[in-house]
Predict the structure.
Amino acid sequence: MSDGVGTSMTSAEHATDHLDVALEHYSVADIEAVQPHAASARTAEWSRLVGPLVIFVLFVAAWHYMHTDGMRRFFDKPGFLLPAPETVLHDSFLKPLARASLLNGLKWTTLVALLGLAMTIVIGVSIAVTMSQAKWVERSTYPYLVALQAIPILSVVPIINSVFGGGINSRLFVCVVISIFPIVTNTLFGLTSADAGQHDLFTLRGASRWTRLVKLQLPSAMPAIFTGFRISAGLSVIGAVVGEQFFRKGSKPGIGIVMEQYRQKNLYAQTYGGLLLAALLGIVVFLVFGRVSKLVVGHWHESSRKPD
Amino acid sequence: MEPTTTTPTRNTRLIAMSDSVSAPALSFSGVSMVFPDGTHALSETSFDVRAGEFVTVVGPSGCGKSTLLRIASGLNKATTGTVSVDRSHLGYVFQDPTLLQWRNVQRNVELMAELEGVPKDERRVRATEAIELVGLKGFENKYPKQLSGGMRMRASLARSLVLDPKVFLFDEPFGAVDEITRERLNDEVISLFQRNGFAGLFITHSISEAVFLSTRIIVMSARPGRIVGDFTVPFSYPRSPDLRFDAAFAELSGEISHALRGAHS
Ligand SMILES: Nc1ncnc2c1ncn2[C@@H]1O[C@H](COP(=O)(O)OP(=O)(O)OP(=O)(O)O)[C@@H](O)[C@H]1O
Ligand SMILES: [Mg+2]
């Protein structure tokens, strides 16, 4: 029996050998023809849409049910605390006043989230690059990074307030603190991902530390760095909303503040409308980074090849 | 710092016999290697490679062949003994292609020249030439993931070529490709050798590859590696593929195989 397995393995190996030889005679156009057909790509596109769509319908149905019956049945709370989806949409986005104030809130939150993310990226990548330069730097700074990650923001609000004031600067600070960890760890991991043979090439030609960083380590780290960006992007939206809970000075009410104001007036539909916008912001930022990542590393990175 | 020999002037044509009396391009004398963990990889190895010579080292796995090349290239430093070589025109083809995944073939081939500070225009010209030599024309814009194993190896070969190596090290470069591709790549190596007249140091596990390519074959013992056999290959270049079926070829292969079996025990 083991004989049979052995034989079939050999013939399989043979087959790939011949394929290999044959491939080298292929023209460029032939190689391109090996790429998946447009039809199967369309099927993949379709199946990528259907799954989330089904979940969406289920979600809206469940929401509706919670409004009409579920809140009372499960939590013994009145249904108006969770308005129906159509009420939320109508009251939040079809009434000009509510829409204007929600979108204004979204604007400030988006601003803080994006500015915060930009700062996080610059600071985070710089920290990671510095840490990667020597093992001892990494070892001595890493514990503090973990500690930073573990600090409950609430407990340092007074300190942040005294340093950065009660306005937008403090929100940015919170945003950076909350979202920086994944960028640093992913970049750090990425910078060590070039293999020893590739490093040898640079050693052979006596490449400087800088050349090695710019031409080898950073490019090979790009997929990991973009993973970090994507996680941090989501966190920076959370950071922006958390930050504005504590630092409300100035006439820049973010979506979190607007939501809070509606809740105090018992306008639940608009409160949930704000929540939808905040979630939407997170999704958009996530998707944008996914797309940018694909543009930057998709043409060479193995894992961005879609299995069928 | 290791002593450096002066390199002989470059010959673009077939190397004449007179070159073999010039100073060796690469010279090992009494090279031993003991790794920090105590592994004794090489012991008292001495031999020279001159321009126009193609020396192949065969020996049991783990006997220190790769270590020998790493020492020649300066990646590792010998524990005792000296290596003298001019590393400014050193070509080194690793066992793996080690291409940079984010660069296309053209830019991968340019890499070594780029690290050496060759101006953009010139390295582009040299890379184009090297790509053509290894038969990858038309694939300049492909990324490594779009190439077959044999094509990646060619790209790696081309990358070493742009520095116009005077000393060319090959560490089992074709171990991972199939027989037919390997033979084709061997032809390419020979024509490069004839064209550039470098000093070649090649490692392989294939005796027929060794005999086909080389002017001289060195057999090493099991670890710690030392030289236990030294053969001169009498065939002239260019070598036709049919040489592999020649009686003299088979006889020499037999002798080397015999020496290798002795090396294993
Ligand atoms: N960095 C290292 N540290 C410790 N031991 C090492 C190191 N590199 C190689 N060795 C050991 O040195 C010996 C020789 O290794 P080397 O890679 O030179 O063998 P080789 O002859 O090229 O073998 P193969 O034909 O399998 O490639 C091996 O026993 C290996 O385990
Ligand atoms: Mg080896």
In short: Residues 84-297 of chain A form a domain with the MetI-like fold fold (CATH 1.10.3720.10). The pocket of magnesium ion (ligand 2) is lined by residues B 65-66, 171 (CB under 6 Å). Confidence is low (pLDDT under 50) at residues 1-35, 304-308 of chain A. The longest helix of chain A spans residues 38-75.
